[in-house]
Specification:
The protein has 375 residues and is α+β, with helices and mostly antiparallel strands. It contains ten helices and seven strands.
């Protein structure tokens, strides 16, 4: 029994051992999907990265192109257009520091350009004071800007400042009436450049010529030939070779020569006239206007008369020497009578009177001689 039991145990042990061994599955062949899917994922990722790179590269190139175009446009002084280009670039790359900096500078230039346009409008409207203040403020702000894009703005500012200077001088031009005043303004304008300054130079020189001619003509009216010559020479100092000034200079020489000839002749005539007047003053200075003789009730002959100074100078101490005759021609008496007033001015009349007592007859008075002193 014992043996039988052992046999059963052995059989059972074998069965248990056979059951404990795992069963082997049949081997499968390798599937292509095990490596294709990862490869496709890798390719998809690579393509996505490539597309993203291409897209980003395209955006970068567009931004750079816009930035480059904006810089070129700004250098041409088109600040508003440059700002718009940079805004377009910032839409594509909002955080691009270079574009942000360029945009800030371009915006500053645009703001200054707008102020300059305002100043230009003020100049056109003849608002000189307002324009001058705006241009002064612009000049102060631009001094601190050294970026190349501000160069066109600085050039435009310089041109507007020239225009301002020209307008200020023009406003004063009508008030200037002397060559020295005009010469000072000409010196100011000579420091400026540009077409407007050149035109104003011509205007000032033209006015210098007009003033010189006018001054010379005024001096010629009073025969101030030296003054007239100086006036013309003053004009020629700024308008060298001016035809009208040279003609006036020649005219002054001719008029001076003619005046000197006429003056010499006048002096000679004056001498002759003076001699004639002196002769008259010495020999015929007194004209007898009238002489009256009247016999009064007492038998006295009363003689009265009037004389006139016909000399060219005052005379004094006029005395009348006269004789009194009867109507039959007999001499009744004679004597010397003083004329009153003592001094007779040119053209003034004086009177004289005398009495011949005891004549008892009608008579007449005859002036024999007249004496006087020329003052």
């Amino acid at each position: 029994m014992v043996h039988t039991v052992k046999s059963k145990v052995a059989v059972n042990s074998q069965k248990s051992a056979s059951q404990a061994k795992p069963e082997r599955k049949p081997e499968r062949k390798g599937s292509p999907f095990t490596w294709l899917i990862p490869l496709m994922l890798l390719l998809t990722t690579a393509m996505s990265l490539a597309v993203y790179y291409v897209y980003e590269d395209k955006i970068n190139k567009e931004v750079i192109a816009l930035q480059t175009q904006a810089q070129k446009t700004a250098l041409e002084g088109k600040y508003k257009e440059a700002t718009e280009l940079l805004d377009a670039a910032l839409v594509k790359r909002p955080e691009h520091q270079g574009v942000l900096l360029d945009r800030e500078i371009a915006a500053e230039a645009q703001a200054l350009d707008e102020q300059l346009n305002k100043a230009r409008s003020s100049l056109k409207a003849q608002k000189i004071t307002e324009a001058e203040k705006t241009l002064a403020a612009l000049s102060k702000r631009l001094k601190s800007r050294s970026e190349p894009l501000f160069k066109p703005l600085k050039n435009d500012l310089s041109g507007s400042q020239v225009t301002l200077s020209v307008m200020k001088v023009k406003a004063e031009l009508d008030k200037l009436a002397t060559v020295p005043e005009l010469a000072d303004k000409l010196e100011e304008i000579n420091k400026l450049k540009g077409k407007e300054a050149a035109e104003l130079q011509k205007q000032i020189i033209s006015k210098i010529v007009e003033v010189s001619l006018s001054q010379a003509a005024e001096r010629l009216k009073t025969n101030d030939f030296n003054g007239a010559s100086l006036a013309v020479e003053g004009g020629l100092a700024y308008a060298t070779g001016d035809k009208r000034l040279l003609e006036q200079q020649e005219r002054i020489v001719q008029e001076q020569a003619a005046f000197e000839r006429a003056e010499a002749k006048r002096i000679e005539l004056a001498r002759q006239k003076a001699a004639e007047e002196d002769l008259v003053n010495r020999t015929a200075a007194v004209e007898v206007v009238n002489v009256y003789t009247v016999l009064d009730d007492y038998g006295d002959l009363r003689v009265t008369g009037q004389v006139k100074n016909v000399a060219t100078k005052p005379i004094s101490s006029v005395q009348i020497e006269l004789s009194i005759y009867s109507l039959d021609g007999y001499l009744l008496g004679n004597g010397t009578i003083d004329v009153s007033p003592y001094v007779l001015e040119r053209g003034e009349s004086g009177e004289f009177s005398s009495v011949l007592y005891g004549a008892y007859t009608e008579g007449k008075a005859v002036v024999d001689n007249i004496t006087w002193y020329v003052e």
